[in-house]
Structure formats: C-alpha cells, structure tokens
Inverse folding.
C-alpha cells in the first residue's frame, strides 16, 4: 500500500505521453527506443505510458507495411517488449501493424508485467489529402468480441475494450488511434460513457502549419466533454520526411486543462509526464447529472465494452507530485485569459444589476463605500449599470460610514472614488450610533472601561 504522502494515495495516477526516436522500417531499433523510455518511466514510477501510432514499424513506410519481413520482425519485437515488461512498473500502449484473418490492421497493444492485455484496431482510416491508409490497412469498425495471437501471446482484440486497474489504486482507461479523435463521434466518447477515466491516443499525425493548435483544441475539448484525462502522443524525429514532416507533439489534458506537453521538433526522445487527478474527474462526473443521462442513452446504441482487468500495486516511496500548482488557483495565469475573465466578471454583474433595476422599475441605488475592494467593485458596477439604463450616476446614493477603526487614507479613497464616478456622495459617522448600541446592551466599554469582545 502506498504511503499517505504518495500521490497514488490521493486518487492521482501518473501518466506519460512519449515520443521516442523512430527508425524507419527497423522494428528492433524501435523496440530498443521504446525500452529506453520505459526504463525512464519505471524509474519515475509512471503508471501509464502511451507511445505513437505504428511506432514499432514506423508510420511513413508506405507499402513496406505489406512486407512479411517487416511484419514478422514486428511480432518478434513485440514478443521482446512483452517479455521485458515483466520487470517494469508501467502499463504501456505501443502501436504496430498486425495481421489477422488475412487483413492488416493499425493497432494499439496494451502490455503490462509480461502480459499482452489487449489489442485495439484503428477504426477511422484517413484517405484524404496527404493520407492514404486504406491502401494498406483495414478499418477495425467491425472488430468486436474477437481475440488475436501475437508471437504466442493470445489477447482480446477489438474496438470494444476497456482496461481496469484492480487493487488499492483503481482506474479505467481506453485506447484509440490518431484519426479516431478527429471524427465527429470518437470511439473514446462511448468509452468514457462506459466508465473510462483516462483516454489514450496513439498518433502519428504529421505536422502542417497551424495543426499543433488544432490538436490541442481537439484533445482539450475531448477531455472536457468526456470529463476525463486525455493523453496524446504523435510521432517525432526519425520518421520519414519523403512527403511529410513531424513535430513530436505529445500532451496530457484533464477536463480541458493542459497538464504537460513535450518540446516540439526535438531531435531527442521526449516525455510529457503529469499526475492525473482521478478524484477531480470522478467528482465532476457525479456532479454533472447529464453525463449519467448520456451514459444510459449510450447503452441503447453502443456495443457493450469488454473490460480487461489487471493487478496494479501503487509504488512505494513516491512523494513528489508531477503537476503544476497554480499560485492563484481561481485566477488564470495566462494574461489574455485573465483579461477575458475580468471582462466577463464585470459585465455579468453589470447586466444582472441593470436587468434587476429594469424589471423592478427602481431608479436609485443606495450603497456603502468603505474605500476597500468589495465596495469599490460594487460602486463601479453600479455606475456602469446606470449608464446602460440611461440614468444619471447621481441616482446612486453612496455613503461612507466611518467608524472606530476607519483610517484617514481609506476614508479619503472612498471620497475620491465617489467624486471620480460622479455619484451622490455623503458621510454618516456611525460612531455615535455604535456607542448608543453599546450603552443599550450594558456593555462595559460604554462607560469607558477598556473591555473588548473577542468572540
């Protein structure tokens, strides 16, 4: 069992989106590159690692995908990865072309502790613009409820797979491949409705101008709509540049928030690592009743998922949190977003107040102005509401109410603010009234005793 100080004890799961160096049509070297990053992931006690699409063969090898010599070597190297995983902590998903019943599929393979947990075929094969995957590959649309044998390892095969960690730290995840995210109804949507909390995408995704931001938008949007975490890994350095280019963009998103991202166009292997907050995801799903409504509706049209369970033991001795903690959690650090949020917060209040005055027919407002932040904001909002209604600001009756603790500077600020905004300002000294209340209560301080209430 993980210690109290471990992130795994507080519903966090460490996830990595990986971009290894690619060797074109060299499965052995690609397996070596994957093992190198897996060793790093093992040291960092990463629970879940995702690698790029067709990463064991390389993506941009065209008709070499159909060569038995390549496909045979792919299977041998997958067997090697499965064997090597016996001594590794992470669960990981790698991409490879696989033969099954006379067809070739673009697949994601999930491996853990010497076991091939499952194989997921790509559903949507792009055959437009620079893509022509249907030339070599078959869609996994109709692959449901099947099994496949890879180098002596038999495992469930289909687009209907979920993977569930069992033990002291539980989580459920789903795997889809590249273009599956770009369609109007991604497979991960149904998976999330069926219970997947972490969504993995093995992608190749060549780079074109502006595409990186589109990827971020898609991943952020999917993680938001599905109330989930989304880990995305695209191919990087080493892929063939015969007619495509690659930037190696990988990132981890949670409820639309970008938690971590790799350096793009890096010549070196990269990993984006983040601790995903499953507690946040689960709480948000419980709170959002329409998510549950949609999940029940999905049962009427989506094929049932098969859940592949595996044992997961949280690591010992882990104490660091791989997650950025905002200094001001309710204020965005991005200046542009901060400006937008302030604009909205201000105008929400103005619109709400103006409508209330309009509906009630009230023409005047009364407000106390202390010179502090709250009353300053309220007075500015009131002034703008009067402007929108076409009423004079003098209809705002603003009062400064100095008491025992009022300072000269605060009082002066209140008066400067009222004059600057052109409202009707006045002062009511509340000390006599406060003293009378103390006398009425029989409080000792009313007769001059130095006695104060502290509760």
């Amino acid at each position: 069992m993980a210690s109290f100080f471990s992130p795994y004890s507080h519903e966090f799961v460490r996830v990595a989106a990986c971009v290894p160096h690619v060797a074109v049509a060299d499965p052995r070297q690609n397996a070596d590159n994957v093992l190198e990053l897996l060793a790093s992931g093992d040291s960092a006690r990463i629970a879940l690692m995702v690698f790029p699409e067709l990463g064991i063969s390389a993506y941009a090898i065209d008709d070499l995908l159909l060569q038995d010599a390549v496909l045979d070597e792919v299977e041998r190297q997958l067997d090697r990865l499965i064997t090597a995983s016996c001594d590794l902590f992470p669960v990981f998903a790698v991409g490879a072309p696989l033969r099954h019943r006379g067809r070739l599929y673009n697949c994601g393979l999930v491996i853990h502790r010497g076991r091939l947990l499952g194989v997921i075929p790509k559903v949507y094969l792009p055959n437009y613009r620079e893509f022509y995957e249907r030339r070599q590959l078959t869609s996994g649309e109709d692959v449901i409820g099947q099994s496949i044998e890879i180098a002596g390892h038999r495992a469930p095969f289909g687009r209907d797979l979920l993977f569930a960690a069992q033990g002291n730290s539980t989580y459920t995840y789903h795997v889809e491949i590249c273009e599956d995210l770009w369609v109007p109804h991604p497979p991960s949507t149904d998976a999330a409705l069926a219970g997947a909390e972490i969504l993995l995408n093995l992608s190749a995704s060549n780079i074109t101008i502006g595409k990186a931001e589109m990827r971020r938008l898609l991943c952020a949007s999917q993680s938001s709509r599905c109330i989930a975490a989304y880990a995305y890994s695209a191919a990087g350095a080493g892929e063939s540049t015969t007619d495509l280019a690659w930037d190696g963009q990988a990132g981890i998103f949670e409820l639309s928030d970008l938690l971590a991202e790799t350096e793009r166009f890096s010549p070196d292997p990269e990993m984006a690592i983040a601790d995903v907050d499953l507690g946040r995801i689960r709480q948000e799903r419980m709170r959002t009743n329409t998510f549950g409504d949609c999940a029940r509706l999905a049962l009427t049209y989506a094929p049932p998922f098969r859940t592949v369970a595996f044992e997961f033991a949280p690591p010992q001795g882990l104490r660091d949190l791989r997650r950025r903690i905002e200094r001001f959690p309710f204020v965005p650090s991005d200046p542009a977003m901060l400006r937008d949020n302030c604009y909205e917060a201000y105008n929400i209040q103005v619109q709400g107040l103006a409508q209330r005055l309009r509906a009630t027919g009230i023409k005047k407002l009364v407000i106390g102005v202390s010179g502090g932040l709250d009353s300053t904001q309220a007075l500015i909002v009131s002034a703008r509401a009067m402007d929108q209604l076409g009423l004079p600001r003098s209809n705002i009756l603003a009062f400064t109410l100095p008491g025992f603790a009022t300072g000269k500077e605060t009082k002066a600020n209140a008066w400067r603010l009222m004059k600057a905004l052109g409202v009707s300002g006045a002062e009511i000294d509340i000390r006599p009234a406060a003293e009378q209340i103390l006398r009425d209560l029989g409080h000792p301080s009313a007769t001059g005793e130095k006695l104060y209430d502290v509760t």
Summary: DSSP finds ten helices and 18 strands in the chain.
